[in-house]
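Pilot study result, target chain (195 residues):
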Amino acid sequence: MRVIAGKVGGRKLQAPKGMDTRPTPDRVREALFSMLLPHMPGARVLDLYAGSGALGIEALSRGAAHVTFVEQAKGALAALQANLSALGLADVSSVVPAPVARALGRLGGAQQQFDIILMDPPYAQNLVPQTLQGVVEGALLAAGGILVAEHAGKSPSPAAPPPLQCMDLRRYGDVAVSVYSGAHAVLSPQGEAAP
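Predicted structure:
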């Protein structure tokens, strides 16, 4: 597994051993970050269910200002920390070693907000709806921000509580990506910012 593009593009990433962590396929990452590219420069990003950190590291490589990674599995945390250290990204990132629900409460209590929120939970556990609820309750998505949820390819977009709205659903074989926003962010079909 490698970083696809940007300042650390082409660099290898460590992945935790075993089947507990499922990395986002390269073609899905490429499509996702092409869509998010106009929003990436200077963005504060939250990477939930971060695993090895591939999504958040891709965001940093492409110009995000800071990424907060949330992961609880020990093997994934070790790979994540090793990747951040090896790529020299420790000073523009923070790691929250906790279950996502607890981390969302903690981040909301600290009144943190993020321009982009990425989530790639285990598909079988149907965690997207409750995670979306936690994001809304913590007021974690900044005005005009974008939230991207990965889920099983055959599933419809998980319902989101107001003020989140589903803007887009894209399918890539066994993987689907639903894109949500608050009231103000809009994506064009090419993934560019629209007025």
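One observation from the pilot: Residues 45 and 73 are 20 Å apart (CA to CA). A full batch analysis is planned for the follow-on phase.
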